[in-house]
Amino acid sequence: MRTDASVPPSLATALETLRARGLEMRRGSEEPMPERGRPSVPTGHSTLDAALGTGWPRGALTLLDGPAGSGGTTLALGALAACQAPGGLAAWLDLDGTFDAAVAARLGVNLEWLLVARPRDPGEAVDLAAWLGRSGLIDAMVLDFGLRAAPDRRALDRFGALLARSGTTAALLLSPAGRSVAGAVAGVRLALRRTAWLAVGSDLVGQRVHASVERHRWSQPGGTAELDLWFADGRRTDSLAPALAEPRHIEVIAVERAALRVVSA
β-pairing, 203-216 with 224-230? Predict the structure, then answer.
C-alpha cells in the first residue's frame, strides 16, 4: 500500500480545500450534517434505499454489476449527489479519464464539493481510495476502473477492511473481466439490467433499470427496485435502442404537457 507521504501533494491540498468548503457549507446549511454513526448513505432512489435496507451501507464496498449502458455511471453520480445534499463529501476516482463534469453537474452533483482524482493504474486507484478512507472526511466515493484490468484481490480485501473501520461507502464500476474479482470481495453486489427506454416524442430521455440486490453482507439479499434513470442532456442516440416507430410495447404516461413513452428494451 502507498504511504500517506507518497500521496501527491496536489491531491492532499485538494482534499483539505474540500474539507474546508464542506465544513463551511455545513455550518451555513439548515440541513443536518451527516454523522459517522449513521448506518447508511442515501442512494437517491427511495425504492433502492428500501431494497438495500436503508441505502448504501456505511463501511461497505459495493459492486455495481451490469452490462455497458445499464445505468451504473448514472446511478453512481446520483448517489454522490444524494450524499452531498445534506452536506456529505464525495470523491470520484477516474482511471480512464472519462469523467464528464458537465454531465455530473446536470445530474445534481455539486462539483465544488467533489474530489476527482485520476490514478495511473488500478493499484494506485485502490491505494488512493484507501488514503481517502483513512482521512475520515469522505462519505462516499466511486472507483471507476473503466476498461482497465481488475485490481489485485488482496489489495481490494485490505481496502474493504479499511472501509469497515472508516465508515466511508464506496462503489465500484468495472469492466466484465474485473467483476469476478470484485464480486468475491464486495460486501454488496447490485445487478443492473435495462428493461425499457424512456422517450418523449422521438427523443430518448432515459432508461428504466431493474436493480437486484444479489449480495448483501449485512442484510437480506434479494431486494429489487425499478429505477427511472434520466440522461443528463434529455436525449440520446443509441444504436442499441429499438426503432421508436415500431415499439414492441408502449406505456403512455402524462407528464405535464409532454407524453412520456416507456419503450421495451
Answer: antiparallel
Q: How many CB atoms lie within 10 A of CB 186?
A: 25
The position carrying cell 477516474 is: 94
Tens digits of per-residue pLDDT, 28-54? Answer: 444 444 444 346 888 999 999 999 998
Owner of C-alpha cell 429505477: 227
Residue 46's CB: how many other CB atoms inside 10 A? 11
Mean pLDDT of the chain: 81
CA pair distance 48, 124, nearest whole angstrom: 31
> In CATH terms, is domain 4-190 a member of 3.40.50.300?
yes
Backbone phi, psi, residue 13, to 5° = -65, -40
Residue type, 15: L
pLDDT bucket at 244, cuts 50 / 70 / 90: very low
**Structure confidence by residue, pLDDT tens digits, 178-198:** 888 888 889 999 999 999 999
- Burial of 143 by CB count in 10 Å (0-12 exposed, 13-18 middle, 19+ buried)? buried
